[in-house]
Write a structure and sequence with these properties.
798 residues; alpha+beta; 10-stranded mixed sheet; 18 helices; 32 strands
């Protein structure tokens, strides 16, 4: 039997397809219409059969692909408003100001509310991300709907259904550029439904199809037989009989159509134009719970959108036992922190800094939250690289565990956001892949990561908080275990090989000069600093304006110079700020070299860190100028200084001490701290009653607490292995068995600890302290049998 294809779908049929909650329902409908099995009516996405080579190279994470669709919705809203305002979007001289004016226009058109929260609530109805369909363990349907400019049936193949066309590359106010990022969702779903209509006010055409709504379905056919990769196609049946696989998209007439959600229904609000994209049975990974929960899709989207162009709606229309509101307002990550989680921040945070790498400026903001309040939300993310409000790459929280940082006790609660919006386009290409979800492996990227680590390693507030958490954790158990630690020290001292090994030691950053020299009296009752958005001074610490600083720089060492200012901490990082800083190495009156540097402003002080070029020799005098400037404020603060190159000072060897070296003179000028040797760790033991505090369970043996101040090994003496060994030992040997276990694990832990990577990610060794703890857990069953076997061989009794 031959089915006759009906090219005109009724309005009710379109509504029916939008309401389907399984891919099979859509397929069955298209089969009845005669479309599904007719290969001629399916047109290749991007008009390229081998389109999956581009689609498959997009975002590697399903949430990042959804975010690309959300960002496309933002772009559509901005372009719609800009065109309504009569702006030539291809010839914008001041993108930041133009975007600001467009956002004001959007606000005026969508809200008259006097309070900013209600304004955001009103504007958020322009974009909605909704979940319908199945709950865990099955995949939900994800719908992204917006009231942006929309598309016509005939423009759709050149926009949403295209790959690589330069639709947005010359529009500076939008995020999209390569015109293929939105295709990445096809990796995580086999079926999409699209309904869209262009804003009638923007149509200047007599073509009746330009006023129609467009309807199509995108399908991904996985490889079978001789197919080497998937193929992505969309439904385009009009004139496909005469132009196989090159037909046009279906259109239908309607003054309004329900593509936006209301309080209870996915398609509950009718609009005149906009775009509706429904992703069926989307492989959303670990985010199958409610979109509104801390571990749900909504918060994962926020993590990838530090700053949203406009607020959005998160809608959850699936049924859960604890069902609250179904349709809620949501903002970007930074606004979420400021508006909803301010009370969860640790005191003194966020901290801010600016970095200059290869002449390119980046700003950083570090947020530390009270223990466990946001750990489910952060889900192991430690660093976000953001560009124009969208996350382009992430680093794992393991960065805080590196030996140079030693911030293990705050790593679960810490997030650093690196804003890359000041980068030139050339630098952006060196830092980010076009997929906008990962970093490029380039020298520039390595330098950025190195400077980021320098900032984190020298941020005094992070170190103080980490150490405070350590002391809080171990203060009760340390005293009880002092005899155990003393006994181990005696064993090591009387064992020649161990004594020599530990005397040689492993280099670790010492505790001298660990602070940044900024606000060291914080919390001592000092008056709270109140800064200014537009500073009136920025000068060397303790000096007058125009003072020329003279000091010393140890050859090959990093230098630090302290400044004082009345600027806010977020002078460089706050939204809309055009304040910049630059460090110039002056070679003549008109010739200079820009130096990479980091500037860390904190409550009226600012620490400048930098390295001079390696070609300078002893007794050379290097002239530099540090500028802080703003074109909008028409202000520049310039500070001249001269550094005489001296040979590196010898370390005192035993650690402790003298603070930063060099000509301090009250300016805070000095070099990076020297190093000290590793000492035996402090030891602490805990029982099952305290497992939750330390993250222990029956199998975990050891928790290593490492900081610039101390190294502590915390042993779980109720772990399964040790309890079994102690239980089977004679009564008189039970304590000895426990001590032998702890001594043996300490030696093993120290050996493994010495192999944890320093700051070079490509170096050999363990990646983190967690790796050391896992090694100890794996070897735990062998410790006592090995020691007993060795005793037996040497003839030494128990």
């Amino acid at each position: 039997m031959i089915t006759i294809k009906d090219m005109k779908l009724t309005l009710n049929e379109i509504k029916l397809v939008c309401s389907f909650e399984s891919a099979q329902e859509v397929i069955s409908f298209l089969e009845k219409k005669g479309f599904w099995n007719d290969d001629n009516v399916w047109r290749y996405l991007g008009d390229t059969e081998n389109n999956y080579s581009s689609i498959g190279n997009q975002q590697s994470h399903p949430v990042s692909s959804i975010v690309e669709k959300v960002v496309n919705a933002f772009d559509a809203i901005l372009m719609n408003a800009g065109k309504e305002m009569g702006i030539d979007l291809y010839n914008v001289l001041d993108p930041a100001k133009t975007k600001e004016n467009i956002l004001k226009y959007i606000q005026e058109c969508n809200s008259t509310a006097p309070d900013i929260k209600k304004v955001k609530e009103d504007i958020s109805r322009l974009v909605a991300i909704s979940l319908t369909g199945a709950t865990h363990p099955d995949n939900p349907n994800v719908t992204i709907a917006d009231r942006g400019e929309g598309q016509t049936p005939d423009s759709l193949p050149d926009t949403i259904l295209s790959l690589g066309k330069s639709n947005k590359i010359r529009i500076p106010i939008v995020q999209g550029k390569h015109n293929m990022g939105g295709s990445g969702v096809a990796k995580f779903t086999e079926l999409q439904v699209i309904v869209t209509r262009k804003n009638p006010a923007l149509i200047n055409s007599t073509n009746p199809r330009d006023n129609q709504w467009a309807f199509t379905v995108i399908r991904r056919t996985p490889p079978t037989g001789n197919m080497r990769s998937s193929v992505v196609e969309y439904l385009a049946p009009i004139a496909a009989d005469s132009n196989p696989k090159s037909g046009s998209v279906l259109g239908f007439e309607a003054d309004t159509f329900a593509i936006m959600p209301n309080a209870t229904t996915l398609c509950g609000t009718e609009v005149e134009y906009g775009t509706f994209i429904k992703l069926f049975e989307y492989e959303v990974g670990a985010h199958k719970t409610s979109i509104l929960l801390d571990n749900g899709l909504g918060h994962a989207i926020k993590m990838r959108l530090p700053k949203m162009a406009v607020p959005v709606r998160f809608c959850e229309f699936r049924e859960f036992r604890a069902q609250g509101a179904k349709n809620v307002f949501a903002d970007g990550l930074l606004d979420y922190f400021a508006d909803s989680r301010q009370g969860d921040l640790e005191e003194g945070f966020p901290t801010h800094t600016s970095m200059t790498v290869h002449g390119e400026m980046l700003t950083c903001s570090t947020y530390v939250f009270k223990r466990t309040t946001l750990s489910r939300f952060l889900r192991g993310t430690g660093v976000i690289f953001s560009l124009n409000g969208q996350t382009h790459a992430m680093l794992d929280k393991a960065i805080y565990s590196r030996k140079r940082l030693k911030l293990n006790e705050i790593k679960d609660d810490t997030l650093t956001i690196v804003d890359c919006s000041h980068l030139t386009n050339a630098a952006i290409e060196k830092l980010f892949m076009n997929s906008r979800d990962r970093l490029v492996d380039s020298p520039f990227t390595e330098e950025v990561k190195k400077e980021l680590e320098n900032y984190l390693a020298n941020e005094a507030g992070l170190k103080r908080l980490n150490e405070a958490r350590i002391q809080e954790m171990i203060k009760n158990s340390m005293a009880d275990n002092k005899p155990l630690a003393d006994a181990l020290k005696k064993v090591v001292k009387n064992t020649e090989v161990l004594n020599q090994l530990l005397d040689l030691g492993i280099d670790i950053p010492g505790d001298e000069g660990t602070g940044s020299g900024i606000n060291e009296g914080e919390g001592s009752g000092a008056e709270k600093f109140v800064g200014k958005e537009t500073p009136t001074f920025f000068r060397f610490y303790g000096q007058q304006d125009e003072y020329v600083l003279q000091g010393k720089n140890q050859q090959g060492k990093k230098s630090r110079i302290k400044f004082e200012t009345d600027a806010n901490n977020d002078l460089f990082s706050r939204e809309g700020s055009d304040w910049k800083c630059q460090l110039l190495l002056l070679q003549s009156d008109s010739d200079f070299i820009m130096l990479d540097h980091t500037l860390n402003p904190k409550d009226g002080n600012a620490l400048l860190s930098f390295n001079l070029p390696s070609f300078y020799k002893e007794n050379d005098v290097v002239k530099c100028r540090f500028d802080v400037k703003s074109e909008a404020a028409d202000e520049t603060f310039s500070n001249l200084f001269e550094l005489t190159i001296v040979m590196p000072y010898e370390s005192s060897g035993g650690g402790g001490g003298g603070g930063s070296t060099g000509n301090t003179g009250g300016t805070g000028l000095g070099n990076a701290p020297s190093k000290s040797k590793l000492k035996l760790p402090n030891m602490s033991t805990v029982t099952k009653d305290d497992w939750e505090q330390y993250g222990f369970n029956a199998k975990r043996v050891l928790k290593i607490i490492d900081s610039t101040e101390s190294l502590t090994f915390v042993f779980n003496i109720d772990n399964t292995v040790l309890k079994s060994e102690v239980s089977s030992a004679r009564q008189s040997l039970k304590d000895l068995t426990k001590n032998k276990f702890i001594y043996g694990m300490t030696m093993l832990g120290l050996a493994a600890y010495s192999l944890v990577k320093e700051d070079n990610e490509s170096s050999k060794g363990f990646n983190s302290l967690e790796d050391v703890e896992k090694i100890c857990e794996a070897y735990a069953p062998f410790i006592i049998p090995t020691l007993n076997m060795l005793n037996s061989i040497t003839g030494i009794g128990d």
